[in-house]
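Good morning,

Attaching, inline, the backbone tokens for the sequence recovery test we're adding to the shared suite. The designed sequence is right after.
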């Protein structure tokens, strides 16, 4: 409780212009999400902690703090709660720091405490460079993690003076490094230097262009299930589905596909934080983009519900076991009786998330690409 009160010093409650909780039906999220400013409680009592951070000075020093988090809340609170077992607390919006460094330090402090409490942080941004603060949580703890970025570009332009354009350079190259594996999902080839993708491939990182991702969106679930942090830039969505984002492309993910990706992220039992960035509320004339982000959050909650009800891998009674041999190697595949999700055993005995197709590939005496790349990273 004392920790919560300390964190409240860094934030302020959502704008009072939003409807009061008693104006919502009991089955709507506006009546179910608990404001920590109104009633401070232990963070550990909640599954998800909602936090707004409208900092955009990393993108452009002249940009004001964004009102986007409150506009997303306005749409989210209208949506219906289908999972009464999920508890969500609203920590409010981060108070703008005198400098951008002050804001980043406050955000990192809050995310560290949320992870310590065992809850998931849901960050409504703000510019995409705030992803660094999600990673700083692991860097401070000296803990290895998998990172997934959903973006139409790779923000690794070392010639730019703005961290917004090159935050990935710092994330992936700063020593010591705590990124075990990195996924870049939804990039658009014409915006990305092919030599960069070649470098990522040599490092055994997975880069999936938007066309390939959209061919089989379900195939992305194992990568997101294994991620400790996920960062989404709304420029990954096609302009027609998120018209507030003036930096978007005519191509990209459809809105329903982004909802699936946020659901997959919520289904990760390892996830400490999900950040949704790049919303430009000043251009959201009809509120369509705020509605989309609110629906993405709804699907994230649905994914957390699945993760909470999933049995641990140690409880083998809740899984079907398939022992097989492919290319002279013995392995084991597990299938959840509850969610029908799959895991496969690596050479070190650990299990990693996989797809049903990976199992079929192994049954055909072929090495699944996911297994091979993971095994190479163990060397």
């Amino acid at each position: 409780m004392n920790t919560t009160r300390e964190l409240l010093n860094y934030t302020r409650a959502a704008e009072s212009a939003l409807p009061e909780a008693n104006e919502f039906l009991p089955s709507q999220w506006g009546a179910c999400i608990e404001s920590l400013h109104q009633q401070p409680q232990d963070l550990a009592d909640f599954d998800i902690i909602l936090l707004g951070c409208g900092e955009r000075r990393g993108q452009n020093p002249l940009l004001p703090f964004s009102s986007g988090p409150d506009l997303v809340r306005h749409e989210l609170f209208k949506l219906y709660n289908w999972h009464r077992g999920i508890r969500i607390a609203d920590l409010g919006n981060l108070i703008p720091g005198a400098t951008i460094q002050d804001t980043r330090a406050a955000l990192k402090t809050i995310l560290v405490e949320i992870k310590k409490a065992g809850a998931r942080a849901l960050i409504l941004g703000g510019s995409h460079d705030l992803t660094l603060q999600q990673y700083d949580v692991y860097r401070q703890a000296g803990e290895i993690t998998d990172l997934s970025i959903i973006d139409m570009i790779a923000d690794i332009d070392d010639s730019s003076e703005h961290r917004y354009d090159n935050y990935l350079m710092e994330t992936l190259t700063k020593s010591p490094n705590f990124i075990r594996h990195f996924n870049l999902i939804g990039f658009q080839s014409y915006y990305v230097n092919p030599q960069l993708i070649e470098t990522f491939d040599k490092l055994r990182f997975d880069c999936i262009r938007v066309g390939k991702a959209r061919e089989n969106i379900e195939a992305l679930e194992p990568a997101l299930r294994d991620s400790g942090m996920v960062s989404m830039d709304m420029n990954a969505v096609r302009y027609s589905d998120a018209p507030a984002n003036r930096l978007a492309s005519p191509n990209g993910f459809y809105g329903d596909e982004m909802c699936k990706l946020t659901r997959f992220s919520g289904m990760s039992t390892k996830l400490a934080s999900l950040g949704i960035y790049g919303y430009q509320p000043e251009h959201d004339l009809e509120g369509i983009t705020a509605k989309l982000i609110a629906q993405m959050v709804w699907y994230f909650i649905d994914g957390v519900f699945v993760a909470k009800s999933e049995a641990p891998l140690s409880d083998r009674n809740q899984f079907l076991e398939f022992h097989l041999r492919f290319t002279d190697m013995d392995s084991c595949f597990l299938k959840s009786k509850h969610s029908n999700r799959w895991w496969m055993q690596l050479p070190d005995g650990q299990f990693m998330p996989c797809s049903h197709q990976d199992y079929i590939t192994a049954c055909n005496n072929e090495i699944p690409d996911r297994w091979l790349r993971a095994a190479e990273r163990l060397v």
